[in-house]
Please model this.
Amino acid sequence: MATPGRALPQPTPETQHFWDGAKAEKLLLQRCNDCSKVYFPPRPFCPVCASRNVSVTQASGKAKLFSYVIHHRPVPGFTPPYAIAVVELDEGPRMMTNIVGCPQTPEALVLDMPVEVVFEAQTDAITLPFFRPSSPLAKG
Ligand SMILES: [Zn+2]
Model:
C-alpha cells in the first residue's frame, strides 16, 4: 500500500538499477568482481578495493534485525509509533528500512530475529523494500 505524504527517494544513475529491481520485487545488491565484496548502497566502485569491476547481484531477501529505534512523533507518511530499523542481509550489507507486519514494540521487535523482504509500491517509479518477520512456515 502506498503511504501518502511519505518522502520518496529520487533514483540517480547510480541507484536506478536498485529501483528497477525493487519495482520487479527483486532486492539488488552489487558485488565486486575483484575481491567478491557484496555491498550496499549502490555505487559504481567497490568500497573495499575501489575496483570499478562490479556487477549487480540479487539478494536472497533474507536478513536479521540488527538494530532499530521506535519513533513516537508523527512524521508525514508515518503513523506513530513506527520503527526505523537496520537489517543485516544474509549477504552481509546492512540496510535501513521499516519493519512491517508486526507490532512496533520492543516485545515484537527482537534483535537478531529473522526477517524477509517485502515490496510495497509507493508510486509508478518507486517501490520500497520493507522487511517483515520471517514466517516459520516459509520455505527457504
Ligand atoms: Zn573489491
Observations:
- The longest strand covers residues 62-71.
